[in-house]
Design brief:
The chain is about 40% helix and about 0% strand. With about 270 residues, it is an all-alpha fold.
């Protein structure tokens, strides 16, 4: 074993598989990779893809790609490293570890680890992470948790999280997001709300939201938006409104709206829905 250890610590072996121009092998504390101090030194005797090699596949390396390659080769070792002091090791081990061992990582001090946990836990187990301090974790939770459980995330501090909630929330609760402070969230709500709740957003202060309403309103009710202050909303009305309502827009102040009206009127009546 002494001869093997001497062979393993030769500098040229430590960089043998590092791609040209890649960073040199270095352990997560900033020192040299020391195979002799590694619990998995016996793996060095195995062929590529079944062992390990500094600069290519190494759990002690600071480089996440090399750690990931090590655990892809040896997923059965992931459970043993869920308490490793280096967050990259814990996070990558969490991708491969038994799902039954991940509960203890919900309170991990690093958000990268918690994000991996949120990716792998079953949707029923994600409630404990709904109010995680890091937005990326909450984004993942909002994407995966059962829609019926999303109600608690409607007031999340991050609008990106609320956008996902608005996309997935059951329609019975969606009305409660109609007055969200973020325009993009209300726009999503407008595209999903059924009638008559959709009327809540017909007078929204943002034209993008009102246009989304005009895209979803029943055609017969579009007349109430024909005098909207924004030309994009009126254009949408002109595009969808029944033929009988187009007269109100024939002399619109915007040329794009007038052109849409002319295009619609130029089509024979029998080929139009209105």
């Amino acid at each position: 074993m002494g001869a093997a250890a001497s062979f393993l610590t030769k500098p040229q072996r430590l960089t043998a598989r590092a791609p040209e121009g890649d960073i040199p092998p270095m352990d997560w504390r900033g020192g040299a990779v020391n195979c002799e101090a590694c619990a998995y030194i016996d793996l060095r005797a195995r062929d590529g893809g079944r062992g390990c090699e500094p600069g290519h596949a190494c759990m002690q390396d600071a480089y996440a790609r090399r750690i990931d390659r090590f655990f892809r080769w040896h997923p059965e070792l992931a459970d043993q490293q869920l308490e490793h002091p280096y967050f990259e090791v814990r996070a990558i081990a969490a991708r491969h570890a038994s799902v039954f061992r991940l509960g203890g990582l919900m309170n991990d001090p690093d958000e990268t680890v918690r994000l991996q946990v949120a990716t792998r836990l079953s949707p029923a187990q994600l409630e404990r992470l709904m109010h995680d301090p890091h937005r990326e974790v909450r984004l993942r939770v909002a994407q995966r948790i059962h829609p019926a459980r999303l109600g608690a995330m409607r007031r999340d501090a991050d609008y990106g999280v609320r956008e996902i909630v608005a996309q997935r929330l059951p329609l019975a609760l969606l009305t409660t997001m109609a007055h969200d402070p973020e325009r993009s969230v209300r726009e999503i709500v407008a595209r999903r709300l059924p009638m008559p709740a959709l009327f809540i957003l017909a007078n929204d202060p943002e034209p993008e939201v009102r246009r989304a309403v005009a895209e979803s309103l029943p055609e017969a009710l579009l007349g109430r938006m024909a005098d909207d202050t924004d030309w994009r909303v009126r254009w949408e009305v002109a595009r969808r409104a029944p033929r009988a309502l187009l007269a109100a827009l024939r002399d619109d102040t915007d040329s794009e709206v007038r052109q849409m009206v002319r295009d619609r009127l130029a089509v024979p009546r029998e080929t139009q829905h209105g």
